[in-house]
Write a structure and sequence with these properties.
about 100 residues, alpha+beta, Phosphorylase Kinase, domain 1, 3 helices, about 20% helix, about 40% strand
């Protein structure tokens, strides 16, 4: 699922794509509630539509959100809207975190 600039996912407004892979697409987004840049991952429909995979995603999100390490991207939120699952990770600082993959 490709998202265009300005697409809203809850309070997050998509700004630009960052990269894509087997676990979906990652976008630079703006958290309109807190007025800050974040990264927003959008999972493939094939993962979101399978109840067992969605439960696994929720379990893994709970586990990952408890981790804190400089080499692990922090997970701050996970949302569901119109059949789209979208974890929210913290936005990194510096060029390497915003370059498209």
């Amino acid at each position: 699922m490709r998202l265009g600039t300005g697409t809203k996912l809850g309070p997050y407004e998509i700004q630009s794509p960052l990269g894509a892979g087997g676990m979906g697409e990652v976008y630079r987004a703006r958290d309109t509630r807190l007025d800050r840049d974040v990264s927003r991952q959008v999972l493939p429909t094939s993962l979101s539509s399978d109840p067992s995979l969605r439960q696994r995603l929720d379990r893994e999100a709970k586990a990952v959100s408890k981790l804190s390490h400089p080499h692990i991207c922090a997970l701050h939120d996970i949302g569901h809207q119109d059949g789209v699952d979208f974890p929210r990770h913290g936005a990194g600082r510096g060029r390497k975190h915003w370059s498209a993959a």
